[in-house]
């Protein structure tokens, strides 16, 4: 795989429903990432390895939402989640991103 994620987008009511289902089932962790106020990337069952990055208070990377040209698909502009390093990251070092609240810090 080339690192591209193939997740699906859901709206808040579906995300809330899936979150409740995961919490009540005891299945384990769930991975959802807000693209904007209405669209959430649902990454729990499908997506690339980046979905397993841990968040922390002293991260070495940050996630940012960017707009890209989606002319090929005929959709105009699309939004993507991109992870950038805050500093040089050593080989074998875990990549972590900022905790909720600064995930889209506008860098």
UniProtKB/TrEMBL annotation:
Leader sequence segment: none
Keywords in alphabetical order: Chromatin regulator, Methyltransferase, Nucleus, S-adenosyl-L-methionine, Transferase
InterPro entries listed in its UniProt record: Set1-like (IPR044570), SET_dom (IPR001214), SET_dom_sf (IPR046341)
Known EC number: 2.1.1.354
Top-level taxon of origin: Eukaryota
Record carries keyword Mitochondrion: no
Enzyme class: transferase
SET domain mapped to chain residues: 15-97
Membrane-crossing residue ranges in chain numbering: none
Location (main, coarse): nucleus
A GO BP annotation: methylation
An example molecular function term from Gene Ontology annotations: histone H3K4 trimethyltransferase activity
SUPFAM superfamilies in the cross-refs: SET domain
An example Gene Ontology CC term for this record: Set1C/COMPASS complex
Pfam family, one: SET
Subcellular location: Nucleus
Keyword Transferase attached: yes
Catalytic activity annotation: L-lysyl(4)-[histone H3] + 3 S-adenosyl-L-methionine = N(6),N(6),N(6)-trimethyl-L-lysyl(4)-[histone H3] + 3 S-adenosyl-L-homocysteine + 3 H(+)
UniProt xrefs under PANTHER family: HISTONE-LYSINE N-METHYLTRANSFERASE SETD1
Name of the protein this chain belongs to: [histone H3]-lysine(4) N-trimethyltransferase
Phylogenetic classification of the source organism: Eukaryota, Sar, Stramenopiles, Ochrophyta, Bacillariophyta
